[in-house]
Amino acid sequence: MNTNKKNNTILFTIFGIVLIVVVGLLVFFANRPKTDDSSASSTNTSSSSQKVNYPTNYTLNAAVKNSSTALNDLTLPQLSTTVSEDEAEVQIKTSAGNINIKLFPKLAPNAVQNFLVLAKNGYYKNNEFFRVIKDFMIQSGDPSNKGTGTASIFGGKTFDTEISNQLYNIRGALALANTGQASSSSSQFFIVQNPQDMTSQIQDKSKYPQKIIDAYKKGGYPSLDGSYTVFGQVISGMDVVDKIAKADVKTNSSGESSAPIDPVKIKSVKILKDWKF
Q1: The pTM is what?
Q2: What is the CATH number that goes with domain 31-273?
Q3: Three-state secondary structure along the chain?
Q4: Rg (CA), the chain
Q5: Phi, psi (rounded to 5 degrees) for 231
Q6: What residues are paired with 137 via a beta bridge?
Q7: What are the b/e assignments for 111-139, b being 16+ CB within 10 Å?
Q8: Cα separation of 19 and 257, whole Å?
Q9: 37 or 69, greater pLDDT
């Protein structure tokens, strides 16, 4: 009888360990944009080796509606390197160099506010670009550097994807990762690095402004459009992004060859032009 109880205890313990491992892997798999048409991802499980205090008492901004302007008459802020009055600007200082990015608070307010507040509170300091795929993207925004950490200033909860017909996943786009669900964006972000012509991915060109189609000839990932919040655009430092993407990688715990052997770290995120929400 005692032997049976002991065996049952061992079995339950083993089951518990296996369950934890499986859940951890599911979160990791969810935490990444995909290189095909399938939905991609960020995390909603906090597991951080770096303790960062940041406010969580912010209220979500109202959803922004798509512009009703004709596609080819739309204002397309990603195509200009000028930082306008209704945009913010940050500089991501990394161990490989600096990346200057302008942000679009009018088009993706929740993503921009979350990013700016976390940056001001040092959340991104020492974060690694823990997932890099050459000719696709580089990903960061998790202090645990495992793809399983997250942070949100909106009551600690993940928030909706913000999709705009004025923003696209062209080369240099800054976007939030998510779990493939509508309300799963948070702190993890990626920068689209692919420099190759990807217009072949555009299945219906009638839904795209011609200037964006032309931009995709210079790189990007159209298959990500409509699935991720684009909230910024690199305006200088794409050479640094390319350098990070070219890193030697090893297989990560999910079996993907994307874990850099010598990961680049974020030293700080400097606010060059703030935005008042």
Answers
A1: 0.85
A2: 2.40.100.10
A3: CHHHHHHHHHHHHHHHHHHHHHHHHHHHHHCCCCCCCCCCCCCCCCCCCCCCCCCCECCCCCCCCCCCCCHHHCCCHHHCCCCCCCCEEEEEEECCEEEEEEECCCCCHHHHHHHHHHHHCCCCCCCECCEEECCCEEEECCCCCCCCCCCCCECCCCECCCCCCCCCCECCEEEECCCCCCCCECCCEEEECCCCCCHHHCCCHHHCCHHHHHHHCCCECHHHCCCCCEEEEEEECHHHHHHHHCCCEEECCCCCEEEECCCCEEEEEEEEECCCC
A4: 20
A5: -135, 5
A6: 133, 192
A7: bbbbbbbbbeeebbbbbbbbbbbbebbbb
A8: 25
A9: 69
Cα 261 from Cα 31, distance rounded (Å): 19
- Say if residues 39 and 184 touch (Cβ distance below 8 Å): no
Read off the amino acid at residue 250.
Answer: K
**What phi-psi label fits residue 203: left (phi over 0), alpha (psi between -120 and 50 degrees) or beta?**
alpha
CA angle 41, 246, 91 (to 5 degrees): 70
Domain limits of the chain?
Answer: 31-273
What is the tens place of the pLDDT at every residue in 204-227? 999 999 999 999 999 999 999 999
Cα separation of 177 and 31, whole Å? 7
Nearest alpha carbon to residue 60 among 96, 111, 21, 1? 111
Q: How confident is the model at residue 32 (pLDDT cuts 50, 70, 90)?
A: low
Write phi, then psi, for 176 (nearest 5 degrees). Answer: -90, 135
Return d(Cα 74, Cα 81) in angstroms, integer. 17
In the numeric block, the tokens 């929400």 are attached to 277
Q: Write out the two tokens for 10.
A: 């061992």
